[in-house]
Structure formats: C-alpha cells, structure tokens
C-alpha cells in the first residue's frame, strides 16, 4: 500500500499520509557540549531514521525535556552542571531511558552512572555502529516495559 494518498478538504486537493502505514519516528535528545560530536551524532541518527535533537548544557536540556523523548544520550561532563544529576532529574520526572556517552571510562564511573539510573553506559571514543545497536536494544526493552504497563489490569 502507498503511504501517501490524495486527499481533499473543502474542495482543496493535497497529499496526505495514511497514518496507519507511517512508521513512528522515535525521538532522541543528545546532551553533549562538544558541538562536533553532537552535530555528527545527530546527522548519523537522522540517517538511521530517528528524530534527533541537541542540547549543549544541563539548562538547555532541562528546557527541552518539557517535550517527550524516547531516549536521552547524555554526557557526564557538561559546562553548567553534571550529567549524573541530570540523569537523576530525568528519572524523577519521566521514564525516558538514558544512555551515558562520556569520556569518564573507569569502572567506578560506570558503576556511578548506573547508580544514578542510566540504562547503558558507553565510553568515548566510541563506535557509532555499536551505539546504534545499543540504542535499538534500550528502546526495545523500554517499549516492552511500556507494553507490560499498558496490559496490566
């Protein structure tokens, strides 16, 4: 079937999408102060079929978190605060999964990230292909949990 069809409203012809056939595009917020990393990651994720948005600081991220995202990719070292505290804030306000993507690469850093509530932890430098597979896995688990919550009486 065709996703686009001819529609008419008050005699005006236009093209519209058959929403039953349009795939939902999952949205990802990238919180990263390095403009090159954030921009490159955004382009990559858009090419993978996601809607991607950048925030370069904790305050900008908090403003953007008024909107619902399917996933947040979060750096720990941010210019106006700490990504760990932002992760904790996200956990208190939403069930959005969080993946840390950071240069903090010791075992203690990773354990601390999980204690603050992240769903996955990736150290820089990183492979975008590995990140993409981890994004898919986290989103798959998140959607499965949502379905369980919906189906419970």
Along the chain, the helix and strand elements come as: EEEHEHEEEHEHEH
Helix content: 40-55%
Count of β-strands: 9
**If you average the pLDDT, what whole number results?**
86
Shape: globular
| Helix segment tally | 5
Strand order in the sheet with the most strands: 4-3-5-8-9
Q: Radius of gyration, Cα only, in angstroms?
A: 18 Å
The proportion of strand residues reads: 25-35%
What is the makeup of the main sheet? 5 strands, parallel
Unreliable stretches (pLDDT < 50, length at least 5) are 17-22, 147-152
Give the structural class. Answer: alpha/beta
What is the straight-line distance between the termini?
36 Å
Report on this model:
The chain is an alpha/beta fold. The strands form three sheets. It has a five-stranded parallel beta sheet with strand order 4-3-5-8-9, with helices on both faces. It has a two-stranded antiparallel sheet with strand order 1-2. The chain is globular.
